[in-house]
Specification:
CATH architecture of the largest domain: 3-Layer(aba) Sandwich
Strand order of the largest sheet: 1-7-6-5-4-2-3
CATH topology of the largest domain: Aspartate Aminotransferase, domain 2
Oligomer: single chain
Helix content: 25-40%
Distance between the termini: 50 Å
Bound molecules: pyridoxal-5'-phosphate
Order of helices and strands: HHEHEHEEHEHEEHHHEHEHEEHEH
CATH class of the largest domain: Alpha Beta
Strand content: 5-15%
CATH superfamily of the largest domain: Type I PLP-dependent aspartate aminotransferase-like (Major domain)
Length: 377
Protein backbone atom coordinates (compact mmCIF):
# COMPACT_ATOMS: atom_id res chain seq x y z
CA UNK A 1 0.00 0.00 0.00
CA UNK A 2 1.32 3.47 -0.83
CA UNK A 3 1.70 5.85 2.09
CA UNK A 4 -0.96 8.20 0.66
CA UNK A 5 -3.44 5.32 0.91
CA UNK A 6 -2.16 4.04 4.28
CA UNK A 7 -2.61 7.52 5.79
CA UNK A 8 -6.31 7.43 4.93
CA UNK A 9 -7.31 3.76 4.71
CA UNK A 10 -5.46 2.00 7.55
CA UNK A 11 -8.46 2.31 9.87
CA UNK A 12 -11.80 1.04 8.48
CA UNK A 13 -15.24 -0.28 9.40
CA UNK A 14 -16.29 1.85 12.34
CA UNK A 15 -19.41 1.57 14.49
CA UNK A 16 -22.69 2.64 12.78
CA UNK A 17 -20.93 2.74 9.40
CA UNK A 18 -19.18 5.97 10.37
CA UNK A 19 -16.25 6.80 8.08
CA UNK A 20 -14.11 8.17 10.91
CA UNK A 21 -13.44 6.45 14.24
CA UNK A 22 -15.32 7.47 17.37
CA UNK A 23 -13.33 8.85 20.28
CA UNK A 24 -13.27 6.78 23.45
CA UNK A 25 -12.68 9.13 26.34
CA UNK A 26 -13.00 6.52 29.11
CA UNK A 27 -10.18 6.53 31.66
CA UNK A 28 -11.16 3.07 32.92
CA UNK A 29 -12.75 -0.06 31.47
CA UNK A 30 -14.84 -2.88 32.96
CA UNK A 31 -12.99 -6.12 33.55
CA UNK A 32 -14.26 -9.70 33.80
CA UNK A 33 -14.53 -10.48 37.54
CA UNK A 34 -13.73 -14.12 36.87
CA UNK A 35 -10.36 -13.35 35.28
CA UNK A 36 -9.77 -9.64 36.01
CA UNK A 37 -9.06 -9.41 32.27
CA UNK A 38 -10.19 -7.09 29.51
CA UNK A 39 -8.82 -5.78 26.23
CA UNK A 40 -8.40 -2.38 27.91
CA UNK A 41 -8.13 -1.69 31.61
CA UNK A 42 -6.95 1.88 32.19
CA UNK A 43 -6.33 4.73 29.74
CA UNK A 44 -2.62 5.24 30.51
CA UNK A 45 -1.78 1.61 29.66
CA UNK A 46 -3.82 1.59 26.47
CA UNK A 47 -7.13 2.78 25.10
CA UNK A 48 -9.05 2.22 21.87
CA UNK A 49 -8.41 5.64 20.32
CA UNK A 50 -4.68 5.80 21.05
CA UNK A 51 -4.37 2.19 19.89
CA UNK A 52 -5.96 3.19 16.56
CA UNK A 53 -3.51 6.08 16.17
CA UNK A 54 -0.63 3.74 17.03
CA UNK A 55 -1.80 1.37 14.29
CA UNK A 56 -1.67 4.28 11.82
CA UNK A 57 1.77 5.39 13.03
CA UNK A 58 3.20 1.89 12.56
CA UNK A 59 1.52 1.56 9.13
CA UNK A 60 3.10 4.82 7.93
CA UNK A 61 6.57 3.63 8.92
CA UNK A 62 6.02 0.02 7.83
CA UNK A 63 6.90 -0.80 11.45
CA UNK A 64 5.68 -3.65 13.66
CA UNK A 65 4.96 -1.38 16.66
CA UNK A 66 3.91 2.26 17.10
CA UNK A 67 3.59 4.37 20.24
CA UNK A 68 1.98 7.77 20.77
CA UNK A 69 3.25 10.22 23.36
CA UNK A 70 2.15 13.59 24.68
CA UNK A 71 5.04 15.39 22.95
CA UNK A 72 8.09 14.77 20.81
CA UNK A 73 10.21 15.13 23.94
CA UNK A 74 8.17 12.50 25.81
CA UNK A 75 8.76 10.23 22.79
CA UNK A 76 12.50 10.99 22.79
CA UNK A 77 12.77 10.44 26.56
CA UNK A 78 10.94 7.12 26.17
CA UNK A 79 13.32 6.05 23.39
CA UNK A 80 16.29 6.97 25.59
CA UNK A 81 14.81 4.96 28.47
CA UNK A 82 16.57 1.97 26.88
CA UNK A 83 19.80 3.38 28.39
CA UNK A 84 20.80 1.84 31.69
CA UNK A 85 23.13 3.03 34.46
CA UNK A 86 26.63 3.37 33.04
CA UNK A 87 25.47 3.51 29.42
CA UNK A 88 26.46 6.24 27.00
CA UNK A 89 24.66 7.71 23.98
CA UNK A 90 26.50 9.53 21.20
CA UNK A 91 24.73 12.53 19.69
CA UNK A 92 25.60 15.36 17.32
CA UNK A 93 26.25 18.65 19.15
CA UNK A 94 23.66 20.29 16.88
CA UNK A 95 20.87 17.89 17.97
CA UNK A 96 17.42 19.40 18.59
CA UNK A 97 17.62 21.78 21.58
CA UNK A 98 15.09 19.88 23.71
CA UNK A 99 17.00 16.64 23.19
CA UNK A 100 20.23 18.44 24.10
CA UNK A 101 18.60 19.71 27.31
CA UNK A 102 17.30 16.24 28.20
CA UNK A 103 20.56 14.36 27.69
CA UNK A 104 22.60 17.18 29.25
CA UNK A 105 20.52 17.77 32.40
CA UNK A 106 18.26 14.75 32.97
CA UNK A 107 20.03 11.68 31.60
CA UNK A 108 23.03 11.99 33.98
CA UNK A 109 20.62 11.83 36.95
CA UNK A 110 19.59 8.42 35.65
CA UNK A 111 23.18 7.27 35.58
CA UNK A 112 23.67 7.45 31.81
CA UNK A 113 25.77 9.97 29.91
CA UNK A 114 25.78 11.76 26.58
CA UNK A 115 28.82 12.27 24.40
CA UNK A 116 28.51 15.01 21.79
CA UNK A 117 30.38 14.87 18.51
CA UNK A 118 30.56 17.49 15.76
CA UNK A 119 29.96 15.07 12.89
CA UNK A 120 28.34 11.64 13.21
CA UNK A 121 29.54 10.85 9.71
CA UNK A 122 33.11 11.00 10.99
CA UNK A 123 32.57 8.33 13.70
CA UNK A 124 34.93 5.36 13.54
CA UNK A 125 35.33 2.09 15.45
CA UNK A 126 37.60 3.94 17.90
CA UNK A 127 34.69 6.14 19.06
CA UNK A 128 32.78 3.18 20.49
CA UNK A 129 33.37 1.82 23.98
CA UNK A 130 31.64 -1.08 25.75
CA UNK A 131 29.43 1.57 27.40
CA UNK A 132 28.16 2.94 24.07
CA UNK A 133 24.57 1.73 24.02
CA UNK A 134 23.13 4.01 21.35
CA UNK A 135 23.78 6.61 18.68
CA UNK A 136 21.12 9.28 18.25
CA UNK A 137 20.89 10.96 14.88
CA UNK A 138 18.95 13.52 12.87
CA UNK A 139 19.50 13.46 9.13
CA UNK A 140 19.07 16.03 7.66
CA UNK A 141 20.64 17.86 10.60
CA UNK A 142 18.90 20.92 11.98
CA UNK A 143 19.30 23.72 10.84
CA UNK A 144 22.29 23.10 8.57
CA UNK A 145 20.49 20.29 6.70
CA UNK A 146 23.75 18.34 6.48
CA UNK A 147 23.32 14.66 5.63
CA UNK A 148 24.63 11.56 7.41
CA UNK A 149 24.78 8.15 5.72
CA UNK A 150 22.25 6.14 7.74
CA UNK A 151 23.15 2.71 6.36
CA UNK A 152 26.86 3.27 7.13
CA UNK A 153 26.10 4.53 10.64
CA UNK A 154 23.83 1.54 11.33
CA UNK A 155 26.52 -0.86 10.20
CA UNK A 156 29.16 0.82 12.38
CA UNK A 157 26.91 1.05 15.47
CA UNK A 158 25.61 -2.51 15.17
CA UNK A 159 29.16 -3.81 14.90
CA UNK A 160 29.62 -2.44 18.42
CA UNK A 161 26.25 -3.62 19.76
CA UNK A 162 24.87 -0.08 19.84
CA UNK A 163 21.33 0.88 18.84
CA UNK A 164 20.62 3.57 16.26
CA UNK A 165 17.85 5.99 17.24
CA UNK A 166 16.70 8.33 14.45
CA UNK A 167 14.76 11.53 15.02
CA UNK A 168 12.86 11.57 11.71
CA UNK A 169 10.81 14.71 12.39
CA UNK A 170 12.16 16.65 9.38
CA UNK A 171 11.59 13.89 6.81
CA UNK A 172 8.56 11.98 8.17
CA UNK A 173 7.87 8.45 6.88
CA UNK A 174 6.63 10.03 3.64
CA UNK A 175 10.22 10.84 2.65
CA UNK A 176 12.44 8.57 4.76
CA UNK A 177 11.92 5.25 6.55
CA UNK A 178 14.91 4.69 8.86
CA UNK A 179 13.72 1.27 10.13
CA UNK A 180 13.93 -0.05 6.57
CA UNK A 181 17.53 1.22 6.47
CA UNK A 182 18.39 -0.78 9.61
CA UNK A 183 17.77 1.77 12.37
CA UNK A 184 16.33 0.41 15.63
CA UNK A 185 14.09 3.19 16.96
CA UNK A 186 12.44 6.08 15.12
CA UNK A 187 11.13 9.07 17.06
CA UNK A 188 9.19 12.00 15.68
CA UNK A 189 7.81 15.19 17.03
CA UNK A 190 4.30 14.70 15.66
CA UNK A 191 3.77 18.34 16.63
CA UNK A 192 5.46 19.24 13.34
CA UNK A 193 4.50 17.61 10.00
CA UNK A 194 2.29 14.81 11.31
CA UNK A 195 -0.10 17.19 13.06
CA UNK A 196 0.72 19.88 10.52
CA UNK A 197 -1.39 22.81 11.69
CA UNK A 198 0.62 24.24 14.61
CA UNK A 199 -2.19 23.34 16.99
CA UNK A 200 -1.24 20.02 18.61
CA UNK A 201 1.68 18.73 20.71
CA UNK A 202 2.41 15.03 20.20
CA UNK A 203 5.19 12.49 19.74
CA UNK A 204 5.58 9.16 17.96
CA UNK A 205 7.93 6.21 18.31
CA UNK A 206 8.11 3.23 15.96
CA UNK A 207 10.14 0.02 16.31
CA UNK A 208 10.24 -3.47 14.80
CA UNK A 209 11.94 -5.30 17.68
CA UNK A 210 9.61 -6.86 20.28
CA UNK A 211 12.02 -6.24 23.17
CA UNK A 212 12.25 -2.54 22.33
CA UNK A 213 8.46 -2.47 22.02
CA UNK A 214 8.22 -3.81 25.60
CA UNK A 215 10.55 -1.03 26.79
CA UNK A 216 8.38 1.62 25.11
CA UNK A 217 5.18 0.12 26.47
CA UNK A 218 6.77 0.27 29.92
CA UNK A 219 7.74 3.92 29.38
CA UNK A 220 4.12 4.72 28.49
CA UNK A 221 2.71 2.89 31.46
CA UNK A 222 5.36 3.71 34.07
CA UNK A 223 6.19 7.32 33.14
CA UNK A 224 2.77 8.18 31.78
CA UNK A 225 3.66 10.72 29.09
CA UNK A 226 0.95 9.39 26.76
CA UNK A 227 -1.24 11.17 24.24
CA UNK A 228 -4.89 11.73 25.26
CA UNK A 229 -7.76 10.11 23.33
CA UNK A 230 -8.96 13.51 22.05
CA UNK A 231 -5.51 14.43 20.72
CA UNK A 232 -5.02 10.91 19.37
CA UNK A 233 -8.19 11.38 17.31
CA UNK A 234 -7.02 14.79 16.09
CA UNK A 235 -3.72 13.25 15.01
CA UNK A 236 -5.49 10.37 13.22
CA UNK A 237 -7.39 12.99 11.21
CA UNK A 238 -4.38 15.26 10.63
CA UNK A 239 -2.16 12.47 9.32
CA UNK A 240 -4.63 11.78 6.50
CA UNK A 241 -3.42 14.90 4.70
CA UNK A 242 0.28 14.52 5.62
CA UNK A 243 1.43 13.20 2.22
CA UNK A 244 -0.60 15.85 0.40
CA UNK A 245 0.60 18.70 2.60
CA UNK A 246 4.21 17.65 2.42
CA UNK A 247 4.08 17.39 -1.36
CA UNK A 248 2.97 21.02 -1.59
CA UNK A 249 5.36 22.18 1.15
CA UNK A 250 8.28 20.51 -0.60
CA UNK A 251 7.33 22.08 -3.95
CA UNK A 252 7.29 25.46 -2.19
CA UNK A 253 10.70 24.76 -0.64
CA UNK A 254 12.16 23.97 -4.07
CA UNK A 255 10.70 27.20 -5.49
CA UNK A 256 12.19 29.18 -2.59
CA UNK A 257 15.60 27.52 -3.01
CA UNK A 258 15.52 28.43 -6.70
CA UNK A 259 14.69 32.02 -5.87
CA UNK A 260 17.21 32.41 -3.03
CA UNK A 261 20.06 30.85 -5.01
CA UNK A 262 19.60 33.37 -7.78
CA UNK A 263 19.55 36.25 -5.34
CA UNK A 264 22.56 38.54 -4.77
CA UNK A 265 21.23 39.51 -1.35
CA UNK A 266 21.57 35.94 -0.09
CA UNK A 267 24.98 34.59 0.87
CA UNK A 268 24.28 30.92 1.58
CA UNK A 269 21.37 28.58 0.94
CA UNK A 270 21.14 25.17 2.63
CA UNK A 271 18.83 22.27 1.87
CA UNK A 272 19.37 18.50 2.07
CA UNK A 273 22.16 17.65 -0.36
CA UNK A 274 23.24 21.25 -0.95
CA UNK A 275 26.53 20.86 0.91
CA UNK A 276 28.23 18.49 -1.53
CA UNK A 277 27.56 16.08 -4.36
CA UNK A 278 28.42 13.26 -1.97
CA UNK A 279 25.75 14.36 0.54
CA UNK A 280 23.24 14.78 -2.29
CA UNK A 281 23.99 11.23 -3.45
CA UNK A 282 23.67 9.79 0.09
CA UNK A 283 20.44 11.69 0.74
CA UNK A 284 18.93 10.50 -2.55
CA UNK A 285 19.86 6.91 -1.61
CA UNK A 286 18.04 7.03 1.74
CA UNK A 287 15.21 9.53 1.27
CA UNK A 288 12.75 10.28 -1.52
CA UNK A 289 12.72 14.07 -1.25
CA UNK A 290 14.38 17.11 0.25
CA UNK A 291 11.52 18.11 2.55
CA UNK A 292 10.30 21.60 3.28
CA UNK A 293 12.88 23.26 5.51
CA UNK A 294 15.59 25.50 4.03
CA UNK A 295 18.09 27.70 5.79
CA UNK A 296 20.00 30.68 4.48
CA UNK A 297 22.12 33.67 5.37
CA UNK A 298 21.57 37.16 4.09
CA UNK A 299 24.49 38.97 2.47
CA UNK A 300 26.46 40.81 5.21
CA UNK A 301 25.34 44.29 4.12
CA UNK A 302 21.66 43.47 4.61
CA UNK A 303 19.77 44.35 7.79
CA UNK A 304 18.45 41.06 9.22
CA UNK A 305 15.98 42.69 11.61
CA UNK A 306 14.53 44.89 8.88
CA UNK A 307 14.17 41.79 6.68
CA UNK A 308 12.33 39.84 9.38
CA UNK A 309 10.10 42.79 10.24
CA UNK A 310 9.18 43.32 6.60
CA UNK A 311 8.16 39.70 5.98
CA UNK A 312 4.41 39.45 5.65
CA UNK A 313 3.78 35.69 5.58
CA UNK A 314 6.36 33.58 7.43
CA UNK A 315 5.76 34.19 11.14
CA UNK A 316 8.90 34.69 13.22
CA UNK A 317 8.47 31.66 15.47
CA UNK A 318 10.12 28.38 16.41
CA UNK A 319 8.68 25.06 15.21
CA UNK A 320 8.10 23.82 11.69
CA UNK A 321 5.94 21.56 9.57
CA UNK A 322 2.69 23.51 9.77
CA UNK A 323 0.56 24.65 6.84
CA UNK A 324 1.70 28.21 7.55
CA UNK A 325 5.30 29.20 6.78
CA UNK A 326 7.52 30.01 9.76
CA UNK A 327 10.98 31.55 10.01
CA UNK A 328 13.38 31.54 12.95
CA UNK A 329 16.95 32.37 13.92
CA UNK A 330 18.49 29.13 15.29
CA UNK A 331 21.47 30.75 17.08
CA UNK A 332 19.20 32.63 19.49
CA UNK A 333 16.08 30.46 19.35
CA UNK A 334 16.26 26.70 18.67
CA UNK A 335 20.01 26.24 19.26
CA UNK A 336 20.54 28.78 22.01
CA UNK A 337 21.57 26.08 24.54
CA UNK A 338 24.70 25.18 22.53
CA UNK A 339 27.97 26.93 23.34
CA UNK A 340 29.03 29.52 20.72
CA UNK A 341 31.99 27.25 19.89
CA UNK A 342 29.72 24.22 19.38
CA UNK A 343 27.46 26.32 17.17
CA UNK A 344 30.45 27.48 15.12
CA UNK A 345 31.65 23.87 14.77
CA UNK A 346 28.19 22.83 13.59
CA UNK A 347 28.04 25.65 11.04
CA UNK A 348 25.27 27.57 12.80
CA UNK A 349 26.20 31.24 12.41
CA UNK A 350 24.43 34.08 14.21
CA UNK A 351 23.02 35.19 10.85
CA UNK A 352 21.58 31.84 9.78
CA UNK A 353 17.79 31.86 9.29
CA UNK A 354 15.65 28.72 9.08
CA UNK A 355 12.52 28.77 6.96
CA UNK A 356 9.79 26.11 7.25
CA UNK A 357 7.57 26.26 4.18
CA UNK A 358 3.82 26.00 4.47
CA UNK A 359 1.21 25.33 1.80
CA UNK A 360 0.71 28.93 0.60
CA UNK A 361 1.15 29.69 -3.12
CA UNK A 362 4.86 29.71 -3.99
CA UNK A 363 4.53 32.94 -6.00
CA UNK A 364 3.18 34.79 -2.96
CA UNK A 365 6.01 33.49 -0.78
CA UNK A 366 8.65 34.49 -3.36
CA UNK A 367 7.11 37.95 -3.76
CA UNK A 368 7.09 38.36 0.01
CA UNK A 369 10.77 37.40 0.31
CA UNK A 370 11.57 39.77 -2.57
CA UNK A 371 9.94 42.79 -0.91
CA UNK A 372 11.50 41.96 2.48
CA UNK A 373 14.96 41.74 0.90
CA UNK A 374 14.37 45.13 -0.71
CA UNK A 375 13.41 46.52 2.70
CA UNK A 376 16.60 45.10 4.23
CA UNK A 377 18.96 46.57 1.59
C1 LIG B 1 10.15 19.90 17.91
C2 LIG B 1 11.15 18.80 17.84
C3 LIG B 1 11.28 17.88 18.87
C4 LIG B 1 10.49 17.95 20.16
O1 LIG B 1 9.13 17.77 19.94
P1 LIG B 1 7.99 18.43 20.86
O2 LIG B 1 6.76 17.90 20.22
O3 LIG B 1 8.15 19.91 20.78
O4 LIG B 1 8.20 17.93 22.24
C5 LIG B 1 12.20 16.85 18.71
N1 LIG B 1 12.98 16.77 17.60
C6 LIG B 1 12.87 17.66 16.60
C7 LIG B 1 13.74 17.51 15.40
C8 LIG B 1 11.97 18.70 16.68
O5 LIG B 1 11.89 19.59 15.68
Amino acid sequence: MHIQTAAVQTLRDFEHGAVVPSVHMASTFELDPATDDGVYAYQRGSNPTRAQLETVLSALDGARHGFAFASGMAATAAALSVLEVGDEVILPASVYGGTYRFVDLVLPKRGATARFVDDLGALTDADFTPATRAVFIETPANPTLRITDLRALVELAHRHGALVIVDNTFMTPVLQKPLALGADIVVQSATKYLAGHSDLLAGAVTVDDDGLADALRLAQKAEGGVLSPADSFRLIQAVKTLPLRLERQQANALAIVDFLRGCEDVAQVHYPGSHSEEEARVHASQASGTGAVVSFELAPELDRIAFLQALRYPAYAVSLGGVESLICRPATMTHEAMTPQARANAGISDELLRLSLGIEHAADLVADLEQALAAAR
